[in-house]
Amino acid sequence: MIRNRNKLDALLADVHQWVRAVAHPAEDRVAAEDRVPDEIVAGMAKRGYFGWSIPEHYGGLGLTTEELVMAAMELSQCAVAFRARVGTNTGIGSEALVADGTPDQKAEYLPRLASGEWTGSFALTEPEAGSDAAALTTTARRDGGDYLLNGMKCYITNAPIADCFTVMARTDPDTPGARGVSAFIVERGMGGLATSAPYRMMGQSGSPVGEVHFENVRVPARNLIGGIEGQGFRTAMKVLNKQRIHLAALCTGPAIRMLDLAMEHAETRRQSGQAIIDFQLVAGLLADCRTEIEAARALILETARKRDDGVDTALEASICKYFASEACGRIADRCVQVFGGAGYVADHSPIERYYRDVRLFRLYEGTSQIHQLNIVRQMRRRRRDA
């Protein structure tokens, strides 16, 4: 659903220009320093990039799902660190509050997230509870007017730098599975909360990922999202179903960038007296890349429109994430192949870094295998309900 085409076109044009004028020239610096420089973060905040999906009432842009994925495809046409720096705020780190927060919770936290003053983080995954969110063991025990949180989370994007965390914890130890899980907003300054140093990773330099540890962290009861115990799993699924569409768009942007790099190389690199793009086997690789990009884009936009129209998109969201992340991996491999030896040498092209960066897409927000299982589960559910 596009509410105002002129405003959206202006936003997309701004992001397109910013990516090429600011992000692309800074990619090597971000990789070397393993962080997005403060002045670039401040510039993104000034442009409103932290608040895309946060309602306008709280200082965001209030983008619809369709508008959000279109903007995400533009912003992600650069090193992953840039969009990851704002992505938790404009997606997974704020969506629980947007979807289920009380008016007071929204008023207290959403303006800080929308402005970029605070960085949010979504703390769900544990060592033995990733895609099976109902198996989590982090606990939240009621103690007077507070809850005491104990446990740990791992593989949490922006955990080392986040100011607040959406935390899924078990409030009812006697209720197994999803029904005993609740969602909380936990601030970094609350005693007993600690985060690890950023992990050393295969790729995605500049995007800090780490652990969150809770040792008798006292969280006021007013920070129970929605004010109701036992609703955390439902909240998490609302967050993840939207985020999977968003992430599919964030897989497609890098694919577009990689194809642009491969096209430029194929048109300028010469062998046997001609540009390598004129060799049919090279042309075939490029054609396959463009075909998968267009298929992913069409699928994502159609699913986003359905969500905006209030349609249940649990099935389609999984399909989007599965297809777009796998397609991005195939596109990365083909583009390195087009570059040949130069694609393997970091000194010659950023394609080597993109190849490593996008490998994570097939793992987080549910592995491809989890999505295959979920797709069939949702298909069976719809057959039963038909």
How is the biggest beta sheet arranged? 4 strands, antiparallel
So what's the CATH class of the largest domain? Mainly Alpha
- The pLDDT mean sits at 94
H/E series, N to C?
HHHHHHEEEEEEEHEEHHHH
By DSSP (H or I, 4+ residues per run), the number of helices equals 11
Measured as a percent range, the helix fraction is 40-55%
Fourth-level CATH superfamily of the largest domain:
Butyryl-CoA Dehydrogenase, subunit A, domain 3
Globular, elongated, flat, extended or rod-shaped: what is the shape?
A: globular
Give me the CATH architecture of the largest domain, please.
Up-down Bundle
**How many independent structural domains?**
3
Describe the structure.
- By secondary structure, this protein is α+β, with helices and mostly antiparallel strands.
- The protein contains 11 helices and 9 strands.
- The protein folds into 3 domains: 111 residues, Acyl-CoA dehydrogenase/oxidase, N-terminal domain (Butyryl-Coa Dehydrogenase, subunit A, domain 1, Orthogonal Bundle); 111 residues, Beta Barrel (Butyryl-CoA Dehydrogenase, subunit A, domain 2), CATH 2.40.110.10; 152 residues, Butyryl-CoA Dehydrogenase, subunit A, domain 3 (Up-down Bundle), CATH 1.20.140.10.
- It has a 4-stranded antiparallel sheet with strand order 2-3-7-6, with no helix packed on it. A 3-stranded mixed sheet has the order 1-4-5. A two-stranded antiparallel sheet has the order 8-9.
- A hairpin with a 2-residue loop joins strand 2 and strand 3.
- The model has no long low-confidence stretch (mean pLDDT 94).
